[in-house]
């Protein structure tokens, strides 16, 4: 994917409204990646810099270029209110009218919901992992017990009896 991404960066390098770039999340860019929730690599984010979204499309040059041409353009935001529908304009005005502390509290409350959802997810995944390990151990014990009970020997006797029957014919 890297060669296609580099080609895309070159194609949009001179754009006054579109930015295609990359960040090394293992080095100096790590704080930025943490801020925007990058957990796996490569990850592609797009949209308003204060509200980046996860890209879910194709990873070849043609798909990336088509997406960039269709989607990387000014969007509804406080800086581009003229691009907003009436409902979004009303939301922006409502948030702009809030006291800074109230807005920060509202943001914190919504971020807490995201953190709680992530924690709940991780907790359930851990429960599933523990259940998987328990079930796998039980299966392994059953397999070992069946083998120890003489299954292999039974199969050998059956095969030998079948061979004797064929030899008699």
From TrEMBL:
The lineage of its organism: Eukaryota, Sar, Stramenopiles, Ochrophyta, Bacillariophyta. InterPro entries: PDI, Thioredoxin-like_sf, Thioredoxin_domain. This is Thioredoxin domain-containing protein. Pfam families: Thioredoxin. Residues 1-69 form the Thioredoxin domain. Signal peptide: none annotated. Residues 100-145 form a coiled coil. Belongs to the protein disulfide isomerase family. It comes from Attheya septentrionalis. Keywords: Coiled coil, Signal.
């Amino acid at each position: 994917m890297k060669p296609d991404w580099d080609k895309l960066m070159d194609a949009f390098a001179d754009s006054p409204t579109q930015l295609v770039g990359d960040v090394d999340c293992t080095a100096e860019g790590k704080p930025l990646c943490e801020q925007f929730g990058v957990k796996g690599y490569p990850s592609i984010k797009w949209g308003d810099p204060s509200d980046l979204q996860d890209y879910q499309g194709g990873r070849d040059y043609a798909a990336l270029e088509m997406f960039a041409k269709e989607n990387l353009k000014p969007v509804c935001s406080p800086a581009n209110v003229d691009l907003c529908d009436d409902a979004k304009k009303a939301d922006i005005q409502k948030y702009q009218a809030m006291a800074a502390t109230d807005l920060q509290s509202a943001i914190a409350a919504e971020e807490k919901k995201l953190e709680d959802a992530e924690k709940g997810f991780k907790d359930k995944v851990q429960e599933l992992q523990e259940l998987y390990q328990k079930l796998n151990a039980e299966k392994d014990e059953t397999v070992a017990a069946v083998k120890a009970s003489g299954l292999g020997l039974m199969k050998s006797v059956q095969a030998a009896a079948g061979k004797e029957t064929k030899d008699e014919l």
